[in-house]
Amino acid sequence: MSLLLHTYGLIRPLLFKMDAEHTHELTLKALDRVHQFAAPLLKQDLLLPTEVMGLTLKNPVGLAAGLDKNGAHIDALGSLGFGFVEVGTVTPLAQAGNPKPRLFRLPAKQSLINRFGFNNEGLNQFISNVKQSQWHQQGGVLGLNIGKNAATPIEAATSDYLKGLEGVYAHADYVTVNISSPNTQNLRALQAEDELIQLLSALNERRSELQAQHQRYVPIAVKIAPDLDRAQIDSIAHAVQHTQIDGIIATNTTLTREAVMGQPHANEQGGLSGPAVHELSLVVLQRLREQLGTNYPLIGVGGIHSGIQAVEKIQAGANAVQLYTGLIYKGPLLIRDCVDAIRNFSA
User: Fold this and answer.
1) Buried b vs exposed e over 90-125: b needs ≥16 C-beta within 10 Å?
2) Is the pLDDT of residue 13 over 90?
3) 251 cis-preceded (ω within 30 degrees of 0)
4) Are 120 and 93 in contact (CB under 8 A)?
5) Does position 265 have pLDDT exceeding 90, yes or no?
6) How far is the C-alpha of 166 from the C-alpha of 15, rounded, in Å?
7) Are 61 and 306 in contact (CB under 8 A)?
8) Radius of gyration of the CA atoms of the chain, in A
9) What is the pLDDT averaged over residues 315-338?
């Protein structure tokens, strides 16, 4: 294993002294440089083959959407040992997102609050970036996450998602429909049963056309919020069964603040990620598994900071997991920790 991967804990205090979003951008550029000139220093080969949505993953630990919104860093991120990588969220048109600052660290709680608002360079640039990815061309499993533009009225959201699906379909191993970001006005209203059935039915119909056109079937997953009561979770379970959507990713960030009250930045608007989301997502996963049975594909995400928490996601019903905030606080060795813990649990 590369010694470079062990140095993250040493440089993190320096990184955390800089603006959070600026640090995020610098880190991704640095990863690209290392991958370009010294790729073996990043590489982790972590094998634990896992089947999800008909896809064979190298291992069940993936990268969550949001870290690489424009799909511009796939090769460097993929080399860190992920079993699958999800990039986006992409919207049909480029948009700046919400005003800065919009990313805040809460180090004492190993958490983040963001209100990015789907900032991205738009669908055309996103597809161009994805097409350049060697990692994907060499067999890496890639998920492409689609959303709606902030300026698109919620009543017309389906049109944006259809444009997204049409654009990414030929380049995705699976497509994620993001209806759960708290940073796009009214977006979470699409989680209501009638609205969700309407949206997913339209996507399914268009997927059938794209399948015939491209001669390949691309699974669709829907990403949902952690701030759901039992009735809302049951409605989502019914909607995905009714529309035969392939999987659910649970969950996105939370609007709750109980776990971080009193911390600097705790009152900033946006979605909270970190350990608080882990507990909320476990409840959602457990209920989904009860409602959807043993075979329905579920991906658990939110607040995984250790291999133990990755296993807890699996115990709650997840078939695979994704990392984001834990990666910021723990570094790339967290990927190995999670794969090893799931392997030991499954043995």
Assistant:
1) bbbbbbebbeeebbbbbeebbbbbbbbbbbbbbbee
2) no
3) yes
4) no
5) yes
6) 38
7) no
8) 19
9) 96
Burial of 72 (0-12, 13-18, 19+ CB in 10 A): buried
| Beta-bridge partner residues of 273 | 112
CB atoms within 10 A of CB 161: 25
Chain centroid, CA 136 distance in Å: 17
| CA-angle at 10, arms to 8 and 13, nearest 5° | 95
Would you state the structure tokens that stand for residue 187, as one six-digit string?
């977006």
* pLDDT of residue 42 exceeding 80: no
Active-site annotation, residues: 181
Secondary structure of residue 304 in the 3-state scheme:
coil
* Cβ proximity of 219 and 175 under 8 Å: yes
Indicate whether 269 pLDDT > 70: yes
Give 218: exposed, middle or buried? Use CB within 10 Å, 0-12, 13-18, 19+: buried
Question: Looking at residue 98, what DSSP letter applies?
Answer: S
What would the two tokens of residue 292 be?
């959807």
Residue pointed to by tokens 């649990």: 345
pLDDT surpasses 80 at 37: no
Contact 188, 103 (CB under 8 A): no
Q: What DSSP assignment string belongs to 109-167?
A: GTEEEE---S-B--HHHHHHHHHT-HHHHTT-EEEEEE---TTS-GGGHHHHHHHHHHH
Tokens of 69: 């919104």
CA separation for the pair 322, 251 (Å, rounded): 10
- What are 103-117's pLDDT values in tens digits? 999 999 999 999 999
Tell me how far apart the alpha carbons of residues 63 and 45 are, in angstroms, rounded to a whole number: 15
**CA–CA separation, 296 and 252 (whole Å):** 19
What domains does the chain contain, in order, with CATH numbers?
Answer: 48-96+116-252+271-346 (3.20.20.70)
Q: Which residues contact 73 (CB under 8 A, 6 or more apart)?
A: 28, 31, 32
